Amino acid sequence: NAGVMQNPRHLVRRRGQEARLRCSPMKGHSHVYWYRQLPEEGLKFMVYLQKENIIDESGMPKERFSAEFPKEGPSILRIQQVVRGDSAAYFCASSPLSSTDTQYFGPGTRLTVL
Amino acid sequence: KQEVTQIPAALSVPEGENLVLNCSFTDSAIYNLQWFRQDPGKGLTSLLLIQSSQREQTSGRLNASLDKSSGRSTLYIAASQPGDSATYLCAVRPYNTDKLIFGTGTRLQVFP
To answer: Which residues pair with A50 in a beta bridge?
Structure first.
């Protein structure tokens, strides 16, 4: 059973471009979480999704950021018109059920905005 | 608002020592607490998960305890090895939410 997969592992964008980060959860997992780790800071929750539904997006900036988890395919975190402050490591986690289950983390995507 | 603090922020010890890493949280209304390991430039590896009804969990040389009423958890590492060098993160899952709230981590270096 492959773990949580994220791609790309490294992404470089210029200011104003769009960044698309992909996350494939572990097989059998229908809950996906996105976290962001800014340089020298801890991980911060961004958004929690189930298939085709956003459950909690309280940690996601209101502008430029969006997330989806379609019925088929990976979850996508999309950042429009990136700025230097978006440079961070973005981690995806998945779990089979919510609340009491372990969240399994992917290797992360490191976004660098030039 | 739930806040998670980890002390110390960094620790450097010789191989073989027994270590205690501390985690404190401000709101005891949690489902569980989880300890992770993060290697430089890598993702997170789950080490131990303690449900709110449990007092401790053990895996190999690792033992984690939870005192929910006082808002504290400790991760005990026995007979430390250079391969234990990493950043250790604790995270709590508050009631009525599915997100994890992370501490800022303890950066551990074990030298030969």
So the answer is: A31, A53
> Which of the four pLDDT bands, split at 50, 70 and 90, describes residue B40?
confident
Any CB–CB contact under 8 A between B59 and chain A? no
Among the partner-chain residues A45, A55, A91, the one whose CB lies closest to the CB of B43 is A91
Q: Which two tokens stand for residue B76?
A: 């005990």
Do A43 and B91 make contact, defined as CB atoms within 8 angstroms? yes
Residue A28 CB-density burial (10 A; 0-12 exposed, 13-18 middle, 19+ buried): exposed
Q: What is the pLDDT of residues B48-98, one digit of tens each?
A: 999 999 999 999 999 999 999 999 999 999 999 999 999 999 999 998 888
CB pairs under 8 A between A and B: 60
Taking CB atoms and an 8 Å limit, are B100 and A43 in contact across chains?
A: yes
Query: Where do runs of H (alpha helix) occur along B16-112?
Result: none
CB proximity list for A24: less than 8 A, separation 6 or greater: A4, A5, A6, A74, A75
A24 token code pair: 């494939």
CA torsion angle for A92, A94, A100, A102 (degrees, to 10)? -80
User: pLDDT tens digits, residue range A64-84?
Assistant: 999 999 988 999 999 999 999
